[in-house]
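User: I'll paste a sequence; please echo it back and then give the predicted structure.

Assistant: Echoing your sequence first, then the prediction.
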Amino acid sequence: MKKKIAILGSTGSIGKSLLKIIKKNKKENFQIILLTANKNYKELLKQTKIFKVKNVIINNKLSFKKFKSLNKNKNLNIYNNFNELDKIFKSKLDYTMNSIVGLEGLEPTLQIIKYTKTIAIANKESIICGWNLINKKLIDNNTKFIPVDSEHFSIWYAIQNLKKSNINKVFLTASGGPLLNLNKKKIQKVSVKDVLKHPTWKMGKKISIDSSTLMNKVFEVIEAKNIFNLNLDKISILIHPKSYIHALISFNDGMIKIIAHETTMDIPILNSLFNERNPNYQNKGIKLKLLNNLNLSQVDTKRFPIINILKKIPQKISLYETVIVSANDQLVRLYLNNKIKYNDISNKLLKFLNLKEFVKLKKITPSTLSDIINLDKYVRLKIKSKSV
């Protein structure tokens, strides 16, 4: 029986990787019910032909029109938004991947959960800002959740069928990015080109900047807190330049689990799809040279001041996390557009998060999607007015 799947954000890196995995593992065993994209209509059109897709959603109106004009498949249903999912799904999907980037991925996540047995989420903003809304939908619809970030997949993989009460400490690893060993005085003048040269991962511009400041790890700590319902004091970050270890877990019984794999997202993606150890992955074996030289170290908060944000995070999910996500995203955009200097990302963000109007949001839990979306818009406008 064919496995019915949907891929939200199929033209991005995660979506493309998933489609490659499906192709390698006998694509005839899968039936892709839905693919979605924002602007990349040409790539989406190719995907629909290769995988004989039944339905597509293209959010961008101009791309939607261009796709319709180029498409010659009369059996392909083309939609402009996620409000017509009832027309697309006649029965529950086996698997959905949400790889839409940014807060734009939260609404589709909430909408599609009831239509799928399993949802794999690679959208960190959704988990950070709206986990309580997502988790309620998961419970109400008896939908299984699998995190796709390599660190969170590693934790999820390691603690299956184990009592979380036995967890003593969880360590997430960070490569430290391209500026790890750069003289601190030179960081202020570093070019965008240099910041984007990630030493171990191939990533987009936004996430590469976040990796260099360690903001990406701040996000991942919040994600881990939410997903695994852990106290913040049970989660730490270790610098690991080789990116071979993705998570370490220390247990109260004295045992330690170290989860390692190659620096490729194919492994968590493949395992989330099959939800088992898949024999078709060509394992290259253990890299002993890397294991013999792990070079793990504590985070230098002077080099990575943005890590101090973790001291501000409330234990219970709140609207404050939306402020963090939105403000950082807007500051990174300003940096990429040469409006601010590299160090301004951390400095301005830390100051911005201390504003009284935002600090009070630590006590407010988001109750609707609109709470998050409206706050996101407000924060972005405020950053623009203060930073340009």
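The CA atoms of residues 167 and 251 lie 5 Å apart. Residues 3-147 form a domain with the Rossmann fold fold (CATH 3.40.50.720).
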